[in-house]
Write a structure and sequence with these properties.
CATH class of the largest domain: Alpha Beta
CATH superfamily of the largest domain: Alpha/Beta hydrolase fold, catalytic domain
Radius of gyration: 23 Å
Oligomer: single chain
CATH architecture of the largest domain: 3-Layer(aba) Sandwich
Number of helices: 8
Helix content: 10-25%
Number of strands: 23
Number of domains: 2
Strand content: 25-35%
Distance between the termini: 58 Å
Amino acid sequence: MSLPVTPVLSVVPTRGLMDETFKVLVENLPPVFPVTIHSLHQSENQGHWEAYAYYMSDHRGKVSVSDDLSFGGTYTGKEPMGLLWSMRPVPGSPEGLRLRKVNVCTPMLVNISVYSGHDGFRKLAPLASVLTERWYLAPGVQRIDIREKGVIGTLFIPPVLPKSGPGPFPGLLDLWGGGGGLFEYRAALLASRGYVALALQYLTNGELQFVALELLDYFETAFNIIKHHPQVMPDRVGIFGLSLGSIMTIYLAAESTVIKPRCCVCVSGTHAFPHGKILSEIYQEFGDKVRLDKNNYQIWRGIGLAILSDPTKKVDVMKINCPMLLVNGHDDQNWSSTESAEDINHMMRAEGKEHLLTRLEYPDTGHLIEPPFSPHFRATKFIMNTRKEKTILLWGGQTKPHADAQEHSWRNILTFLQQHLYGSPNSKL
């Protein structure tokens, strides 16, 4: 359909951090005119991801994604950031993909376009397009490769900030999960929010990274690299973990006599783990607890429940003396994180330390609770061991509730960190 005027598409801001919102507005449309607003991203491995939504212009010929209702597409309703969090691989893509930023020194480029009509919009030329940049790394953040004392990681140092000035800053040890490798995007975003953050590599394809150092020594050494950095307040260093990273966070907070984290954030973790075993060994020992869903995706919750039922495999969380935030989804299909959170609460209450614990739990939310507006991954490929055998794990969650949980939990995580790493020593939960 030819239009009497040229539609105008604006995205404000076109450049922003990944946890910031934007406003998408289409103007100069005919009144009550059907349009599809589409977002498209080409990942670093050349995969394509998209989201789209159907709108009708108002009597003034406008569509505001922040204010108007979508009545179809990858999301429905009033969802200002649905064009990001509802992204999925384009039709025909391989199964089990996961979108993760590898090079944080470049932005995630997202092309936002508006099309006439709804059905078959992909076959049409867009009425207008805007290229946007989504960054994990704020201007001025320093990125430093760490190859020190046997530790492998990447350190991010904040720029001069209005509140904190040139530093020193609080610090965070950032621990990802059992997939292994070195991922920097969360640490980069934390540094953009005012924390010196060390993204630590400690696993490669499920195998322990350590060569010169033992398990506990490796994490303690990494923690002390942050603590003794001249840009860090030495008494204000915390630990942030996801999945296996949360297990290690809890273990360090309870068992280390060398380091004393100021606070801990644990996302989708547990306090029960067979110490000293790598993932492939755990899988072999508890493989009979793995279930398959209708798509033959592996569900590992049974492994976590089996380990949790053995008191000898539990970390003694009653030794923990720092504030701890637990973030869990009720539809975590990968691990027994909600059951573990309840047990941690019971154990700490018995020790009179329940005041140290803050819990965030979300319905219809899965295992991979990431920074806000990240796409939801219900099931993705997972490399099991050094032989690079791949399977698809079911993480759980439903897209809209999971997206809401990511946004809400991130705000609360930043508030928690602000209170306990920037706040006074006597701050209360």
